[in-house]
């Protein structure tokens, strides 16, 4: 019995750090993250809890995977996004709907719903 409890505790301890890093994006699931670069290009990004994302820039669409590592998020697009390195890694922190902030070279806003 002790071995089973210890094994379960170790399993939980091993998964908690990975989940803790992902919590920074919780407010973005089901909402729209809008990024603007210095050239005025606007991208709408839709994060999903399964570590995937989709998005659009003008009429072009894109998709890929995301990963949080400490205070950095890296997005790897299935096909390169125009004007964006692939993968692209920028600082990440938790935000609320309605917030606007700087993340690397981007101005970022979080808006409610899928837009």
- Strands of the biggest beta sheet: in what spatial order? 6-5-4-3-2-1-8-7
- Number of β-strand runs: 8
Cα-to-Cα separation, first versus last residue: 51 Å
- What percent of the residues sit in helical stretches (DSSP H or I)? 10-25%
Q: What's the pLDDT, averaged over the residues?
A: 82
The helix/strand class is alpha+beta
Q: Please indicate the percent range of residues in DSSP E strands (runs of 2 or more).
A: 35-45%
Radius of gyration: 16 Å
How is the main sheet built? 8 strands, antiparallel
Sequence of secondary-structure elements:
HEEEEEEEE
Residue stretches low in confidence (pLDDT < 50, at least 5 long) are 1-20
Describe the structure.
The protein is an alpha+beta fold and 115 residues long. The chain is built from 1 helix and 8 strands; from the N terminus they run H-E-E-E-E-E-E-E-E. The termini are far apart. Mean pLDDT is 82; it is low at 1-20.
Question: How do the helices and strands line up, and which of them pair or pack?
Answer:
Blueprint lengths: L1 H21 L9 E5 L5 E6 L4 E6 L2 E10 L2 E6 L10 E4 L8 E4 L2 E6 L4
Antiparallel strand pairs: 1-2, 1-8, 2-3, 3-4, 4-5, 5-6, 7-8
